[in-house]
Amino acid sequence: MTRTLAIEIAVQDPAGVRIAGAVGAARVELASALPLGGLTPSPATLELSIEAARAAGPEVHVLIRPRAGGFHYDADELAISERDVRRAIEAGADGVVVGALDTAGSLDIDAMRRLRDAAGGASVTLHRAIDVTADPVATLVAARDLGLRRVLTSGGASAAIDGLETLRTLVAEAAGAIEIMAGSGVDAASAPALAAVGVDALHFSAKRSVSEDGGVRMGSASDGVGGYEVTDLATAQGVVAALGR
């Protein structure tokens, strides 16, 4: 049977959803604050992006992440995440993207069960929390045992292209029972090599930076220069073209 490589694009708004549809992406991961690794999007962003997807075509999978930083959450953060999962599915999302680790840095099985159950049978993806665990293969096995649909991973590296051997090992361990989606730094140059490892999907943001010099600091992480990122059609087209599509 011929394997079809799926494309997922990380987007932050309805415009990104439309670009993903235009290049034939199977899914979007909808988030806010991608420069922080992604956070849960607002209710309005969620609703309008789902509306855009109905016309543009891709499934909408919503990142549920209550804050930046690590993936060990306290009771309040987990309760927020659980409710955000329910609301995303109730709003019409096709799935959610989640991840929670325990104090030892391993997958938090109880927390993941709660988030999985909150999705009510919808698709659940384990995000790159897997890449900061000590044993990504063991984490994959745990995710598979939980009945999750897929994992998003860079193979434990900062960029997926540097995690090729671990990705190959994960594909072998998954044995088709859970999908392996490669992500982090995926671009036109690295996409073919990543696809050749046998992953089920590629995940990338196809982003372009827009700068605005405000001259005033707007937060503790700000350097005084305003700016933001948008999904770029030409960048997305470049990655797709590199895959021979």
How is this structure best described in words?
It is a single chain. The radius of gyration is 17 Å and the shape is globular. The mean pLDDT is 93. The relative contact order is 0.14. The longest helix is centred in the middle third of the chain and has 16 residues, at 75-90. The chain has 8 helices and 10 strands. The protein has one domain (6-242): TIM Barrel, CATH 3.20.20.380. The protein is of the alpha/beta class. Helix 7 (191-196) links the parallel strand 7 (179-183) and strand 8. The strands form 2 sheets. It has an 8-stranded parallel β-barrel with strand order 1-2-3-4-5-6-7-8, surrounded by 6 helices.
Quick summary of this structure?
With 245 residues, this protein is of the alpha/beta class.
Write out key terms for the chains shown:
245 residues, alpha/beta, TIM Barrel, eight-stranded parallel barrel, two-stranded antiparallel sheet, 8 helices, 35% helix, 20% strand
